[in-house]
Amino acid sequence: MVSFSEREAAYLGQHRLGRLATTGTSGKPHVVPVRYRFDPEREVIRLGGRLVEGREKERLYTRHLRGNPQAAYVVDDVPDEEAWQPRGILIKGLAVLHAEGGETLWPGFGPNWIEVIPDFVTSWGLDLPTFPTSATG
Description:
Elements: H1 6-14, E1 17-23, E2 29-39, E3 44-50, H2 60-67, E4 70-77, E5 87-98, E6 109-124
Antiparallel strand pairs: 1-2, 1-4, 2-3, 3-6, 4-5, 5-6
C-alpha cells in the first residue's frame, strides 16, 4: 500500500466522482463513473452505487473484479477550461468486494461496495489554483 500526499488527500476530499477501470476475462477494458469516499485514515477509496430496484444482474465491473481484482480509479477535473490545465489522481490497486455496508457511503446506495487498496498513486496539476485568475487582477 502507498500513501497519499497532503495535497492528494485534500484533492480527494474535495471531489466525489471518478472513473473506475476494470478488465474482464476477454481482456477488454471497461470504464464507468462511480461515486466514492476517500478514507484518509486507512488511505483507501470506497466505491458504491445506487440501489436500483428490479436490477437482476450484477454490474459488469463487479463481475470483472471477481475474476481480476486489480482496478484503476481516476479522479480529475479542469478548473480553468480556457487555460486547459487538467489536474487529477490515478490510483491503481487491489479492489476488495464487500456485500454489506454500502448504505453508509451515500444515501440511496445499495449494500454492495468496493474498497480500492492502492499500490500505485500518481497525480498531476494539483498545485494549480482552483479558479482562474484574471489578467487584470
